[in-house]
Design brief:
The protein has 564 residues and is an alpha+beta fold. Among the domains are: 123 residues, Diaminopimelate Epimerase, Chain A, domain 1; 168 residues, 2-Layer Sandwich (Alpha-Beta Plaits). Helix content is 44%, strand content 17%. The protein has 18 helices and 17 strands. The strands form 4 sheets. The protein has a 6-stranded mixed sheet, sandwiched between helices. A hairpin with a 2-residue loop joins strand 4 and strand 5. Helix 15 runs antiparallel to helix 16. The longest helix is centred in the C-terminal third of the chain and has 31 residues. The protein starts with 8 loop residues before the first helix and ends with a helix. The N terminus is likely disordered.
Length: 564
Amino acid sequence: MSSMRDRNPEAVLAGQRGRCTFCSLSHNVIVRTGDGGIVLVTLKKYHGLGNDYLIYDPNQNRELLQERQIQLLCRRNTGVGADGILFGPVLENEKIKVRIFNPDGSEAERSGNGIRIFSKYLKDVCSYTTGVSLPNMVGILCGATTNTPALGAAQQTLKQMGLESSTPALGCAVAYPMGVVGVILAVLLIRKVLVRKEDLEIKEKDDANKTYIAAFQVHNPAIFNKSIKDIAHLSYPKFVISRLWRDGHVSIPTSDKVLKEGDRLLVITAEKDALALTVLFGEQENTDWNKEDIDWNAIDSELVSQRIVVTRPELNGKKLGALRLRNHYGINISRVYRSGVQLLATPGLILQLGDRLTVVGEKAAIQNVEKVLGNAVKSLKEPNLVVIFIGIVLGLALGAIPFSIPGISTPVKLGLAGGPIIVGILLGTFGPRIHMITYTTRSANLMLRALGLSMYLACLGLDAGAHFFDTVFRSEGLLWIGLGAGLTIIPTVLVGFVAFKMMKIDFGTVSGMLCGSMANPMALNYANDTIPGDNPSVAYATVYPLCMFLRVIIAQVLLMFLLG
């Protein structure tokens, strides 16, 4: 027999004899079989109360140890070294039992300390329920939820605890394909059983960001001869006056413009606020100004409507009102488009690089504003990777900071995955406010995401590939696949049922929410292809960061709480 040990067990156990504590090590050992072949076996070494035993779990190994093999394994100079071998768990008459072997290969009747050590092992690996060790179970959980950052955090935690860090990778690799397919199957099941045809129809939802255009006539005596600035300070919803018609002429109203009786106003606001503005101004016209095919330049010959892109870096993070474009150039900014979303152009809106502003005014004035904002679209084609690398560095630094959780002796870290996620969210939210350019091209964004995921999965495959097929084509592998499928489908179906039937959330939102909770972009692509509207994508983006972060923490807490 030849031995391949991960570390010297004697060095680890030195000075610990006589203490009432348990410690464990994992060993992968090559054992010669009776027919001259070799086989790789997995052993766990536990120490407690002055004894150390090797745990030989038949659920994880196929080879039955012979007397000579036990002797060689227990030798301290040439083997792993132990006071004996605990063979189990073994199920006899529906009871869990363990066989105890002495270092000479003979079987012992009983060992009090051996029983205590074996009980600790059962607690650690949870083999009394599934026969799957806790590290493997955590790997299956990560694969079932297609959450590779959680796997990275789990591996880092095991390494920190002095255990074999590659153990969860195999469980993740086995469960990952079913994790992808399982969410799709769950969505299909909910759709087949619960969803009616009318539930798939697109329903308009109140969106705080969605702009609404309406025309009003000034008939309220309370605002006669008052400036727009004074009216805006009243306790009414936010609005932007795009055009003002008076005596057959159109103009761009500045903040000092005084309203008169009979003025016609083109106002941009939120749809839910239209009634309140009707009370403010006096009367709302029946014309529908929200059609997609409106030619704004044909409404009047005096004004031009044009979209201008913010490309000047010095404008990133500045408030729209601080530019004073309306008063300086006589133009009006009615709407702002950012990542496909319409935003109301209020003075407090913080601009970001790449924002598309709808500017209304005279042609000469718009040309001047174009110089101020930039509108150099070519400059946006260059990927901006500086902030990405800053985020990576800060994320790694944050992930390395330990913080304690009550009841767990070992501090928890966000790790290589959780740290960058948190920093990315913070930079995306607050970066423009400190004039940090977070804009990058969509192609660069997609490339980095795809490349990162591909590289990680490739490394995962290399790590788990050595024993992948040996595991999959055994009853143990089928158990792992079944556990992964259960962890994927059962919670997804239950949550989907509660959200759709009890909480009355539309099916598109429920589907996106389930895909985001499982960090499953492949399932999201399926949902987007089969469900009309963009509700799945919106729900996915909403729940994804939180669920990703929680699983990174949960994976570590499970390992530290149960193995610590």
